[in-house]
Design a protein that fits this description.
Blueprint: H1 2-15, H2 18-25, H3 31-37, H4 42-53, H5 58-62, E1 67-69, E2 76-78, H6 79-82, H7 98-113, H8 119-128, E3 144-147, E4 154-158, H9 160-168, H10 173-183
Antiparallel strand pairs: 1-2, 3-4
Length: 184
């Protein structure tokens, strides 16, 4: 029984080539998903990459020429187009892909500026408003979080012109009513 398992694993090692692995990386799959598709353990995927690079350390084997593993989402992506240049090293690239770093920055911005607001809360508010501005009810590519600057309470999501208009009128209801009277 042990001999049969050893023969099976050796055959699997021969069948799983670097070309197959790279082909699946191009589909933007994680190492775990690739291992499931190839019916092997994730360690074998890393082993093949390590073997191809001729490197002894696993972390250095992950960067296989044009492919790089994102440390956040654990997906292999093309290094030059999916990773920003490192702010520390001029010849290296960041360890998180652009999608993950963008999501992190957005999450950090919402939580720090709007009293712990999460991306899920933003998406829920967007859904409640029907993907439209709370004032003019027009759809916009990007809606800004409108909040009371004294209390910090979130009021809704506004398009850029409406948000700018409220800001320029100092969020004063009396000034806004004067503007409505002027326009009438």
């Amino acid at each position: 029984m042990i001999f049969q398992e050893a023969v099976y694993h050796n055959r699997m090692k021969k069948e799983i080539t670097l070309a197959k692995i790279k082909q699946l990386f191009a589909e933007n799959l994680s190492v775990k998903d690739i291992a499931e598709k190839l019916n092997c353990k994730p360690g074998l995927i890393y082993y093949r990459l390590k073997q191809a690079n001729g490197k002894s350390r696993l972390s250095s084997a992950r960067d296989d020429g044009n492919l790089r593993l994102c440390r956040k989402c654990k997906r292999w992506k093309i290094r030059d187009t999916n990773f920003a240049p490192s702010s520390i090293h001029t010849t290296k690239r960041d360890t998180q892909c652009l999608d993950c770093s963008s999501l992190y920055r957005r999450s950090y911005h919402l939580s720090s500026k709007y009293d712990g607001m999460t991306i899920e809360q933003y998406e829920e508010l967007l859904k409640q408003q029907g993907n439209c501005c709370a004032i003019c009810h027009k759809p916009a590519k990007r809606l800004h979080v409108d909040h009371n600057h004294t209390t910090g309470k979130v009021r809704g999501l506004l398009c850029r012109p409406c948000n700018t208009g409220i800001g320029l009128l100092d969020e004063s209801p009396s000034t806004l009513l004067s503007a409505v009277k002027y326009l009438s």
